[in-house]
Write a structure and sequence with these properties.
Layout (H helix, E strand, L loop, with lengths): L1 H13 L5 H8 L3 H13 L3 E4 L2 E4 L5 H4 L1 H17 L3 E7 L2 E8 L13 H4 L4 H7 L4 H10 L13 H10 L4 E4 L6 E7 L5 E8 L6 H17 L3
Antiparallel strand pairs: 1-2, 3-4, 3-7, 5-6, 6-7
Length: 228
């Protein structure tokens, strides 16, 4: 994932079509791996192959979001490196909570995203952190239009219980194996935005989560600054 994002960054910053060999040199990604990632990125619509090289595709919003998006990504990379855990960023997009960025690695892989955020925000720390920033009426409206699916034996499926938890955890939200068995997650909201940053760890490392809060708060502040 990190290598693919590095290639996307390189193409976005270049401003002109980039051949595969040049991308491999500039990113430090081995050429065979670069070719593999380029094929995947083209297939998914993030890149477009032209006779002169690769350019950003329709699915990449970097041209619109520009430097702010790249700064957010750098914040997540540092969070991942500092904590040795996958780092996530999500936002409220209209009426849906959407996962926008992930930085992970073979040593710290992401949680298996087997259910999309539009159906599982209630079971994630990211979703709860974002919902906690909304007015009470907006929270109730969201829950009224999004069934609380039972994803694991730990998932909160009662709107009343979830609203009570949101009241108790406005500064730090936790997913206690509610989205996926074997994984716990903690998130904090981004000040002044309907966004949140999070990290996840195996359930046996749940005791580490409180120690991650300072780093998460720092990352959330830096994400907010990325938009100034």
């Amino acid at each position: 994932m990190v290598r693919a994002l590095s290639i996307l960054d390189a193409v976005g910053e270049a401003g002109s079509p980039q051949p595969a060999k040049r991308l491999a040199r500039s990113t430090g990604v081995p050429l065979p791996t670069t070719y593999h990632l380029l094929r995947t990125l083209v297939h998914e619509g993030y890149l477009l192959r032209t006779p002169d090289g690769y350019v950003l595709g329709d699915r990449v919003d970097l041209l619109g979001r520009g430097a702010a998006s790249r700064r957010e990504l750098r914040v997540l990379r540092r969070l991942h490196d500092d904590l040795g855990a996958p780092a996530y960023l999500a936002c409220l997009d209209g009426e849906e909570i959407r996962l926008t960025e992930i930085v992970d690695s073979p040593a710290a892989p992401r949680v298996d995203l087997w259910v999309g955020m539009q159906d599982a925000a209630h079971a994630t720390a990211l979703g709860k952190a974002i919902l906690g920033t909304l007015p009470v009426t907006s929270r109730r409206d969201y829950l009224a239009s999004h069934p609380l699916l039972d994803l694991t034996p730990h998932t909160i499926t009662s709107p009343r219980a979830l609203l009570a938890e949101l009241d108790r955890s406005r500064e730090v939200a936790v997913d206690r194996q509610e989205y996926a068995l074997g994984t716990v997650c903690t998130a904090v909201p981004v000040p002044g935005h309907t966004k949140a940053v999070a990290v996840s760890v195996p359930a046996q490392r749940a005791a580490d989560l409180p120690a991650h809060r300072a780093a998460l708060r720092r990352a959330a502040k830096l994400v907010a600054l990325a938009h100034r």
